[in-house]
Amino acid sequence: MNGTDPPKLTPLLLTGNVVNRPTQVDFTACRIRPTTQNAGGLWAPTIRYHERTFYVTTTLVFSEKEYGDLSRWQNMLFTTSDPSSNDWSDPVLFDYPGYDTSLFWDDDGQVYVQGSFYWRIREEISQYQIDVRTGRSLSGAPQKIWAGMGGKAPEAPHMYKKNGWYYLLIAEGGTELGHCSTIARSRSVWGPFLPCPHNPLLHARSPTALFQTIGHADIFTDDRDPERIRYRMVFLATRVIKDAFPMGRETCLAEVDWSEEWPVITTAALENGKVGGMMDVAKLSAPPQNLQALDILASPHHHLLYLRNTNLDACNFPYDASNSAQPSTLILHSQQITLTDPAKSPTFIGYRQQHLYFESYVHLDITGLADGSEVGLAIYLDHEHHFAACVEKRGGSCRAHVKRVHPDLKSMPDDQDVVNSTPLPIAENATVIRLRVLGEPEKYTFEIDLNPGRTAPGIHPLGFGMAKDVSGGFTGTVVAIYSSHEGSNGSIISVQEWKYRRM
């Protein structure tokens, strides 16, 4: 384990996806707000369990709309009895003039929804009583219950009840370096809420710590040992190294001591020295460990990521994924949609970057690459921020190079921040090639192997891109394979192998 990875944390296993079919949510109008990295789409889901049913609330955000336009926020509720089955309901819509909605069941069975009014309009946490079957309010308009400790953008509310007290946990300070979690309590679900005397409960330990933007927390009980009920907290944090944080906001886990009146958070795993912007990255370098690569195509398909309202026929598996005896192959059908399209869904299938040091490589049969087409391996943040090691065919000739997409590309100087990629000619009779990306805290390095699996060396460097240029927003980078074409003739590309390995 490299020194930049949190020590002694157990990886969380993905068991399924709430949104797993195109009919549940329409992402067509979800864009990135111009001149910002303020992305639309689904924000801040919260999961709750009550009487053998799981509930997930989330907000579909249309970020291009005006801040005061209440149609900017579409809140929705999904349910299932088995979260690992992918058998989640279609959404129940409910009105709330903001985001970060969360459900709370009181002892009498009444259900309340808390949420965050948009801070640019009004800084407050409010709630109303809700019918979870219909989404209808049972108490009229949302009522303000707290506004936090004075930090910017009070948000991410969660309500708990313990020993007759209603506890309200929120985030405030904005989602950047001032982010933190604070808590208050009241004898009534409607308040008034009195703040904890040792707020904030959770925040970055110093401006130079590796983990920054710490907040947006939730507390849950761990009752696996019935004789000792434990409390734990999940929260978001960003690993920042010299202005680079390509993985965005990551989910972390901490222990909670709630033996007294107020919870106390144990964050020893985050306090591994001053290794933020002041660190010497060279000291973090370590020789690759002998860790087994993950076969992405043979893994459960709920790990795979798509863009927006994807066309699943453009990325299909011509075999039964449950039959491990069959080869792990994927067929890409190119579309006239590129990675730079802000609204449509290209032929794209991704796997989330999970480590600061990693490699990913893909074997592609390019015999079906049509003229005017390209196929590649990308590090993708959004349509305006990504790198792609691609093979393209123009005028009957193939070449490989690295594409770099960034809003400031034209104005950036010719220095190490710019990809150094000279197109590499590829022979007309080439069949299977391998594209590889090596990820490090500050940069991504791309290469191509024209003779994968053969004795004759065929490895050529293609170029690199800086991690800070794919840092920003919330969601983090995705390692993706894609294909697109111009004109009327598309390509059919066979993906014969795709692996990801932590270094």
UniProtKB/TrEMBL annotation:
Give the Gene3D superfamilies listed for this entry.
Answer: 2.60.120.200, Glycosyl hydrolase domain, family 43
Please list the GO biological process terms of this entry. carbohydrate metabolic process
Q: Where is this site: Important for catalytic activity, responsible for pKa modulation of the active site Glu and correct orientation of both the proton donor and substrate?
A: D100
The entry lists its GO molecular-function terms as: hydrolase activity, hydrolyzing O-glycosyl compounds
UniProt KW keywords? Glycosidase, Hydrolase
Q: Which residue numbers delimit the Beta-xylosidase C-terminal Concanavalin A-like domain?
A: 322-490
Q: What protein family does this chain belong to?
A: Belongs to the glycosyl hydrolase 43 family.
What protein name applies here?
A: Beta-xylosidase C-terminal Concanavalin A-like domain-containing protein
Organism lineage: Eukaryota, Fungi, Dikarya, Basidiomycota, Agaricomycotina
